[in-house]
Design a protein that fits this description.
Number of strands: 0
Helix content: 40-55%
Shape: elongated
Number of helices: 6
Radius of gyration: 24 Å
Structural class: mainly alpha
Distance between the termini: 84 Å
């Protein structure tokens, strides 16, 4: 009985090791459920359709003028979308939270003033 348990354990260890070492070859073939990945829009028109527009952040002028640029920043859209889903808030609130997080990461206060003690302002 010990021989069978040892053989199965060794075979399992070798299989897992082989799968781990070759994961770059077989992972792209795994099916990805739709709820894990949602494609971000790539134009201003698609941004408006996806809810990345509001009365305070209006993209309709860009759409009406036929702006051919790629739309909003992909990383920013992804983060705002995560905030909207996680905290169940609207676009404006998610954009405010995202901006405050970026400010905090760069050592800037919520009101936009630097937190650097050496900062001197002449107003």
């Amino acid at each position: 009985m010990g021989y069978i348990l040892y053989s199965v354990s060794l075979l399992l260890l070798l299989s897992v090791t082989a799968l781990y070492l070759t994961r770059s070859r077989w992972i792209p073939f795994l099916p990805v459920p739709q709820y894990i990945y949602s494609r971000l829009p790539s134009s201003f028109a698609a941004d408006v359709e996806s809810g990345f527009s509001s009365s305070a952040f209006d993209l309709s002028a860009n759409v009406q003028s036929g702006d051919a640029r790629a739309g909003l920043d992909d990383q920013g859209k992804r983060e705002v979308q995560k905030i909207m889903k996680r905290r169940k808030v609207g676009f404006d609130e998610a954009r405010r939270i995202y901006t405050e997080q970026r400010f905090a990461k760069n050592d800037i206060g919520p009101d936009g003033t630097p937190r650097d003690p050496k900062f001197v302002s002449f107003s």
